[in-house]
């Protein structure tokens, strides 16, 4: 079956995107007309970020995850009650904070609604259109378990392969001139910020099995860590929280991630050699906030936009209820590589009460 969206439909979507707020128009102009409540939430978070940053050099990024959008066609103007358009807010925040990159943590929910492969492709085209007009900095996309189509009712196999996802979304940054190193396909790789001595590795946590890693991806991860230049630090990004102890829902306590232990062993081995150089692993999927320092590794979960019954929350998890029509919910993160600490600033729901700070220089090393 042909999975490519009809070219005429795709161009129509692209034309709609060109006049949406936050997108560069064909004439090179741009617009940042977003709701006043959204601009206020961004301003408040960026102000906290700037005060903490001070005069220190930082690596800054926005982490947006689990939008779980119900959008199935491109409207004539942005529908900010649909969380997929909150990617526009993330782009505005990244501009104001002068971020180095953006991470989309996955689960746009392409398998929602209509079950046809054509519908999947149309929903992917919407995401591509929303992001494609703002690539002055790279956006690193992590494949979510609700992005590849395997959870669709009656689905056999995956309508969206890892390679297809990677080419379509992480290929955006490449097509806009950013240099990203990839593995076997573009659903995993890394982005270097040489002047700040920082490497951002993004992984595909549904590469083998519903959750899990292929051997080729793990080999790439090990080599990417081994080749990290001296004096650099590295952060990892994925969708699923591999440390299941803090990320599971109570009804799903059994962890079935393929080659989970091999993944963790690679990180532990790196920390054993270079205890001050792993910032942490940032992820979503769980639909709540949680974090833990374990075996010298900072594991950090961001809630995003997905839902969960509070009875399923594990120990230590925090959940912020909010309306997508009146709030956004993503993270603005600042890393101070020389000092060895980072701080997560909540943009939107929860505000400063959901900010978090961690250290990654191992004081026992």
How would the blueprint of this fold be written?
Blueprint: H1 7-18, H2 36-53, E1 59-64, H3 86-96, E2 101-104, H4 117-132, E3 139-141, H5 162-175, E4 181-182, E5 189-193, E6 198-202, H6 215-226, E7 233-237, H7 244-247, H8 260-273, E8 278-283, E9 290-294, E10 297-301, E11 329-336, E12 341-348, E13 356-359
Parallel strand pairs: 1-2, 2-3, 6-7, 7-8, 8-10
Antiparallel strand pairs: 1-11, 4-5, 5-6, 9-10, 11-12, 12-13
Helix pairs in contact: 1-4, 2-3, 6-8
Model description:
- This protein is 28% helix and 18% strand.
- With 365 residues, the protein is of the alpha/beta class.
- It is globular and about 50 Å long.
- The strands form 2 sheets. It has a 7-stranded mixed β-sheet with strand order 4-5-6-7-8-10-9. A 6-stranded mixed β-sheet has the order 3-2-1-11-12-13.
- The longest helix is centred in the N-terminal third of the chain and has 18 residues.
Radius of gyration, in Å, reads 19 Å
Order of helices and strands: HHEHEHEHEEEHEHHEEEEEE
State the helix count: 8
Mean pLDDT: 87
- Cα distance spanning the termini: 55 Å
Strand order of the largest sheet: 4-5-6-7-8-10-9
Major sheet, described briefly? 7 strands, mixed
Residue stretches low in confidence (pLDDT < 50, at least 5 long) are 1-31
In total, the number of strands is 13
The helix fraction, in percent, is 25-40%
Structural class: alpha/beta
Strand content: 15-25%
Q: Please state the overall shape, judged from the principal axes of the Cα atoms.
A: globular
